[in-house]
Write a structure and sequence with these properties.
heterodimer, A: alpha/beta, 6-stranded mixed sheet, 4-stranded antiparallel sheet, globular, B: mainly alpha, 9 helices, 4% strand
Chain lengths: 247, 251
């Protein structure tokens, strides 16, 4: 579903933010991109949504190259930003969720149906007329996920979805991510806080200074991960099985 | 938690919220014309009507009262300029400035009119979704040849969408400065350096983030727009405001 081939990108400061990054994530998998601050996680996600185009190599989503079929790629890839406020474009909760489907030129009754469905799924139906900026941090994050769900993408990429959230906020967002996975979406999550989601991941990708230094099943990658600035989950450090935050 | 501010849409189910935006815009233009042309005898009933409309729509008063001092400064400026620049019977003098009775009367009338227009504008802004306004601008521009109506409407929509963001950025910068002991609001070079420049930087960054968010969600000019609807309420609103305008002209 997602394939990167020797991707390189620089912001023009003389340093490569991504260099020679290649990996593939099959359809329906949940992959985690981990790495220290400044390792290139957000830059990588923006390539998958087509917000950034690679200077070297290519990015393929569902067989479509971001450079050649940008519009089609964006229809297939929903992106949840790190700062929820930055993603909110509507004046009310329901208007914000409708923004994506409106860009898909869907008829109004279908847009209304999708908005209702997405808000029900994230438990925000009762706040549909409220101003988004008055929601709590967890609610804003769920709203951004609802905005993506309403577009019914095949791929969802989430940038640090658990940052600044309390326990209940993390659980709510985690439930939404797992629900998206259950519905068949391919999911890519960036984080340097593996505790919260690693148990649910099929694949772990480790970035360091813009390069992919490891990729594979989490169990194989976790030992020695701390040398790259990512804390190993407490459970695995103690040789115990990792438990889900939903339990 | 963000605070409510004055320059944004407030959801409601009143007739003003439901009114088709094209006719709402026409009503606003007629009422504004009425206010601008009204004689003093008509200003009283018009003001009473505007207050009734505001309270009837149950629009929030708190943001209005919080922001009013900013507008009062502007109104005081307008009043002062009128008071000293209108020729007539001198009331009192202060150096080279002569305040005339006619100037005070003219200044008072002008301030009253501006306050009324402000209230009408706020009623329009708080009861109109930016998406609807964008659709209305697009509809109005469509018959005009060589005007890219979608681009123009998008710009208007973004501008309206960005006013609350701009306001929020200014407040956040002020709060950040106040938290570190910088409480002065007097205009000065230091004020410009510490408030205006950081605010402008934040606004540019916010604009950048907003455009990224819109692109990420597949924004394009050709998209599903708001539906228009003309019914009895719209006709009634047009007739009423038209009657107010005619009545004002006659009085």
């Amino acid at each position: 579903m997602i394939r990167l081939e020797n991707v390189g990108f620089s912001y023009g400061n003389g340093q490569w933010s991504l260099k020679d990054v290649s990996f593939a994530v099959p359809a329906g998998e949940l992959a985690i991109v981990a790495g220290a601050n400044g390792s290139g996680k957000t830059t990588l996600l923006r390539h998958i949504n087509g917000l950034l185009l690679p200077e070297e190599g290519r990015v393929l989503v569902d067989g479509l190259c971001t450079r050649k079929a940008l519009g089609e790629v964006r229809r297939r890839v929903g992106m949840v930003f790190q700062h929820a406020d930055a993603q909110i474009v509507g004046e009310t909760v329901s208007e914000d969720v409708a923004f994506g489907p409106e860009n898909l030129c869907l008829p109004r009754p279908e847009i209304d149906g999708r908005v209702r469905e997405a808000l029900d799924a994230v438990g925000l139906s009762h706040k549909r007329h409220q101003r988004p900026h008055l929601l709590s941090g967890g609610e804003k994050r769920r709203l951004t996920i609802a905005g993506i769900m309403a577009m019914r993408p095949k791929v969802v990429v989430l940038d640090e979805p658990f940052s600044s959230l309390d326990l209940f906020g993390v659980q709510q967002v985690l439930r939404q991510i797992l629900s998206l996975k259950a519905s068949g979406c391919t999911i890519l999550v960036t984080t340097h806080d593996l505790d919260k989601i690693i148990i649910h991941a099929d694949r772990l990708l480790l970035l360091h200074e813009g390069r992919l230094v490891a990729a594979g099943p989490p169990d194989h990658i976790l030992p020695g991960i701390e040398q790259f600035g990512v804390r190993e989950p407490d459970a695995t450090r103690c040789g115990m099985p990792v438990r889900s935050w939903l339990n | 938690m963000a605070e409510l501010n004055l320059f944004g849409y407030c959801h409601g189910r009143t007739f003003a919220h439901r009114l088709d935006v094209r006719w709402k815009l026409a009503c606003l233009l007629m009422l504004t014309s009425a206010v601008m042309t009204a004689k003093p005898a008509a200003m009283g009933p018009l003001s009473f009507g505007a207050i009734l409309l505001w309270t009837g729509l149950r629009l929030p008063l708190k943001p209005f009262s919080r922001e009013l001092p900013v507008f009062l400064l502007f109104l005081v400026f307008v009043f002062s300029v009128r008071a000293v620049s209108t020729s007539g019977d001198p009331w009192f003098s202060w150096g080279v400035l002569h305040v005339t009775r006619e100037g005070v009367w003219e200044g008072g009338r002008m301030v009253w009119r501006l306050l009324m227009i402000l209230v009408l504008g706020l009623i329009f802004i708080t009861t109109t979704r930016p998406a609807d306004l964008k659709a209305a601008v697009q509809w109005l521009l469509r018959p005009i040849p060589l005007v890219p109506e979608q681009k123009a409407a998008t710009m208007v929509g973004l501008l309206v969408r960005f006013i609350p963001v701009l306001h929020q950025q200014i407040e956040e910068t002020r709060s950040a400065l106040a938290a570190r002991g910088a409480v002065s609001r007097r205009p000065s070079l230091r004020h410009i350096r510490t408030v205006v420049l950081p605010t402008m930087r934040r606004v540019v960054l916010a604009a950048d983030q907003l455009s990224l968010a819109m692109m990420a969600r597949g924004y394009q000019e050709k998209r599903t727009e708001s539906d228009f609807y003309t019914g009895p309420v719209e006709v009634l609103a047009l007739i009423s405001t038209g009657a107010i305008l005619v009545g004002t002209l006659i009085v």
